[in-house]
């Protein structure tokens, strides 16, 4: 349960990009709480260097990489409850925004999302099957087999 903070800075002659991600973990019996924070800022970013809202897991209710921009703010809380064997019930509540230009903490474009489902640690890696809803009245199934590298 030690918090993890990670950052990345790319300052080139063409573009500038700063990213920060923080994760924590607190366990009480079968319940685990994991807060997370993602911040990203960039200038003159090529498309492949823009920030996908929610990172590799995307934003609940939206397709992976659907919202990208040169600004990202995301705050979330994951709750895991240990079931039997390797199985866990998972629920994550997040809020965030992705934008191109403007202020990092602008007043427009904020979304709220909730994703819930089941997961398991297996010999081939973690498996997750979850369904997410976004405040845009959209929903999406999320399936992850193994780890993303």
Describe this structure in words.
This protein is mainly β and 149 residues long. It is 0% helix and 61% strand. It is built from no helices and 11 strands. The protein has strands spanning 4-11, 16-23, 26-28, 31-43, 51-52, 68-69, 71-82, 87-99, 111-122, 125-134, 138-145. The strands form 2 sheets. Strands 1, 2, 3, 4, 7, 8, 9, 10 and 11 form a 9-stranded antiparallel sheet that branches. It has a two-stranded antiparallel ribbon with strand order 5-6. A hairpin with a 4-residue loop joins strand 1 (4-11) and strand 2 (16-23). The model has no long low-confidence stretch (mean pLDDT 93).
Summarize the structure.
This protein is mostly beta strands. It has strands spanning 4-11, 16-23, 26-28, 31-43, 51-52, 68-69, 71-82, 87-99, 111-122, 125-134, 138-145.
Supply Rg.
16 Å
Distance between the termini: 22 Å
Number of helices: 0
- Principal-axis shape equals globular
Quaternary status: single chain
Helix content: under 10%
Topology:
Blueprint (H helix, E strand, L loop, with lengths): L3 E8 L4 E8 L2 E3 L2 E13 L7 E2 L15 E2 L1 E12 L4 E13 L11 E12 L2 E10 L3 E8 L4
Antiparallel strand pairs: 1-2, 2-4, 3-4, 4-7, 5-6, 7-8, 8-9, 9-10, 10-11
Using brief descriptors, characterize the structure shown.
globular; mainly beta; single chain; 61% strand; 149 residues; nine-stranded antiparallel beta sheet
């Amino acid at each position: 349960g030690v918090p993890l903070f990670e950052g990345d800075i790319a300052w080139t002659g063409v573009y500038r990009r700063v990213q920060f991600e923080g994760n924590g973990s607190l366990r009480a019996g079968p319940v685990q709480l994991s807060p997370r924070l993602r911040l990203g800022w960039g200038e003159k970013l090529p498309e492949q260097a823009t920030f996908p809202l929610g990172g590799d897991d995307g934003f609940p209710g939206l397709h992976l990489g659907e919202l990208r921009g040169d600004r990202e703010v995301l705050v979330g809380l994951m709750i895991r409850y240990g079931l039997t064997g390797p199985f866990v019930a998972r629920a994550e509540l997040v809020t965030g925004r992705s934008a191109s230009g403007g202020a990092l903490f602008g007043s427009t474009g904020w979304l709220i999302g909730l994703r819930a489902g089941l997961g398991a640690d297996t010999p081939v890696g973690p498996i997750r099957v979850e369904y997410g809803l976004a405040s845009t009245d959209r929903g999406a199934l999320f399936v992850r087999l193994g780890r993303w590298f």
